[in-house]
Amino acid sequence: MCAVVGTVAAQSPSPLPYETRFYAHDGLRLESYLYRPAGPGPFPLVVYNHGSATPDEEKKEWPAPFIARLLVPAGYAVLVPERRGYAKSEGRTFSEEIGADRGPRYVARMDAEAGDVVAAVDDVTRDPTLRVDTKRVAIMGWSFGGIVTTLAAAQGPRFAAVVVQAPGALNWDRSSDLRKALMKAAARIEVPIQCLVAENDRTTESARAICKQAHGTPAELKVYPPFTPTTLREGSAPGHALFSFQGVKIWGPDLLAFLAQHLPAPSS
């Protein structure tokens, strides 16, 4: 099988087509978005878990078009689960339910969202008409999405590769419960894992610790030089924005190389 190594696509105002899906989990009707390449498939699937976003940010950059522009031309289908309380997903948003709490309730909410993600994956992989290769599924996520990715990847052998981008970097130093949960989950990851973070994020320790604790081979850690974003959310750190659409040209090639090695796409 020949791996397809894509190139980082330039940002374009034209969104790629996608399918909106609905599935049930934990008593809620939840939404997800599925991008697929042209062709008969079956396609390797990359599940992308987004970070926290305001409603205005979601309208501008949703559903994660920069990820689709990077991965779909390289031969990958992309599934973007929508979080509880956002868009048409039922339930309370994280802020509505948890607020500033960073204790056990915080971890319980993230565990619940990890369960949502696993259910979203099951929804698309059990439908043969979607032409998704159930044996070639990777999961990735940035920030909050990196936390959820780590927790979901620990739930069983569903995923062939894992990528975390600044996982929990903004709350790592604020929550011992978060650190314990991520370390416990990371120890259960036994597939190749890539951990990415910028030097000037709030911390680099979350990415370092997860990669060190994981049992996957390889456990690839990459710390990027300080990043200067054009826009920065209040309360964030400059390096944290690297993994938004602003920095895709920097980390995109590393992601593609990792996926090509551990989740090869069929030749076109």
Could you explain how this protein is built, in words?
A hairpin with a 2-residue loop joins strand 1 and strand 2 (28-35). This protein is an alpha/beta fold. Strands 1-2-4-3-5-6-7-8 form an eight-stranded mixed sheet, with helices on both faces. The chain has one domain (19-262): Alpha/Beta hydrolase fold, catalytic domain (Rossmann fold), CATH 3.40.50.1820. It is built from eight helices and eight strands. Helix 4 crosses helix 5 (144-153), helix 5 (144-153) packs across helix 6 (176-186) and helix 6 runs parallel beside helix 7.
Itemize the secondary structure elements and their pairings.
Blueprint lengths: L18 E7 L2 E8 L7 E7 L5 H6 L4 H7 L5 E5 L12 H5 L5 H22 L6 E11 L1 H10 L7 E5 L10 H11 L6 E6 L6 H9 L5 E6 L23 H15 L6
Parallel strand pairs: 3-4, 3-5, 5-6, 6-7, 7-8
Antiparallel strand pairs: 1-2, 2-4
Helix pairs in contact: 4-5, 5-6, 6-7
Main CATH class: Alpha Beta
Per DSSP E runs of 2 or more residues, the count of β-strands stands at 8
What's the CATH architecture? 3-Layer(aba) Sandwich
How many domains would you count in the coordinates?
1
- Poorly predicted regions are 1-13
What proportion of the residues is helical, as a percent range? 25-40%
Q: Gist?
A:
This protein has 268 residues and is an alpha/beta fold.
